[in-house]
Design goal:
Largest sheet: 6 strands, antiparallel
Number of strands: 10
Order of helices and strands: HHHEEEEHEEEEEE
CATH topology of the largest domain: Umud Fragment, subunit A
CATH class of the largest domain: Mainly Beta
Distance between the termini: 33 Å
Number of domains: 2
Structural class: alpha+beta
Length: 203
C-alpha cells in the first residue's frame, strides 16, 4: 500500500512517540498532536494503518508498530527507515539540534512509482553543474510527463544520454550542465525514456 501523506505523518509520529516514551500514544494524544477535536478523525487513520498491516492493536486497544517483515510473518529485510535530523547549515555553524524531526523511509522519499523506477550509473562529466558526477547513480522514473527543465534520460536519434530537457521556438533539445558540451538537437527524433528523480552518491 502507498500511504497518503497524512497516513505517513501519523505513522511516523506514532513510531517516534513510542521510541521516546516507551509506550504507545492514545487517540487523545494523536488528536492533540494533530490539532483535531474529534478522536474519530485519527481513529479512521489508525484503523486504515491497522488494516494495511502497519499497526496492530492489542486487546486493550493499545497501538503497536509492525516493522517490515513482521507484517508477513517473515524476517526478510524491508525498506530502510532512518531518523531525519536537521536542518544543518552548509554555511556558518548553527546550534546543534539533537531532536529527530521524523523517521524517513528512503524509498518512499526518493521513489514515487516503484514499478516504473530504475537506476542508471553515470559516465562522463556533462552534468557536473547540476551536481551529477561520474559514478553517481541516478534514480529514473519511466513514463510520466517530462517537463521543460527536467533532467531526463533522452533518446537522441537512437542514442541514450543524460541531459536537461529544453525548448526553444517550439523545438525540444537537450542541454548539458557543463559549458564544455554543446546543446544537442535531434537530426531525426528525440524521445524521453525517463525523468531523473534523485541522485545517489557513495563517499
Amino acid at each position: 500500500m502507498t500511504l497518503t501523506p497524512h497516513q505517513r505523518t501519523t505513522l511516523n509520529y506514532i513510531r517516534e512517540f513510542q521510541r521516546k516514551r516507551g509506550y504507545s500514544p492514545s487517540l487523545s494524544d494523536l488528536a492533540l498532536a494533530f490539532g483535531v477535536r474529534s478522536k474519530n478523525a485519527v481513529a479512521k487513520v489508525v484503523t486504515a494503518l491497522v488494516r494495511e498491516g502497519y499497526l496492530e492493536k492489542d486487546p486493550k486497544g493499545r497501538i503497536k508498530i509492525l516493522e517490515y517483515g513482521e507484517q508477513s510473518g517473515d524476517t526478510t529485510t524491508g525498506p530502510l527507515v532512518l531518523p531525519l535530523f536537521g536542518p544543518i547549515s552548509a554555511g556558518f555553524a548553527a546550534p546543534a539540534e539533537e531532536q529527530a524531526e521524523e523517521r524517513v523511509t528512503i524509498d518512499d522519499y526518493i521513489v514515487r512509482k516503484r514499478d516504473a523506477t530504475f537506476l542508471l550509473r553515470v559516465r562522463g562529466d556533462s552534468m557536473i553543474d547540476a551536481g551529477i558526477y561520474e559514478g553517481d547513480l541516478v534514480v529514473v522514473e519511466r513514463g510520466g510527463d517530462p517537463k521543460v527543465g527536467d533532467i531526463v534520460v533522452g533518446i537522441l536519434d537512437g542514442e541514450y544520454t543524460l541531459k536537461r530537457l529544453k525548448k526553444d521556438k517550439g523545438k525540444y533539445y537537450l542541454q548539458a550542465e557543463n559549458p564544455r558540451y554543446p546543446d544537442l538537437y535531434a537530426m531525426d527524433e528525440l524521445k524521453v525514456a525517463g525523468v531523473v528523480r534523485g541522485v545517489i552518491r557513495k563517499y
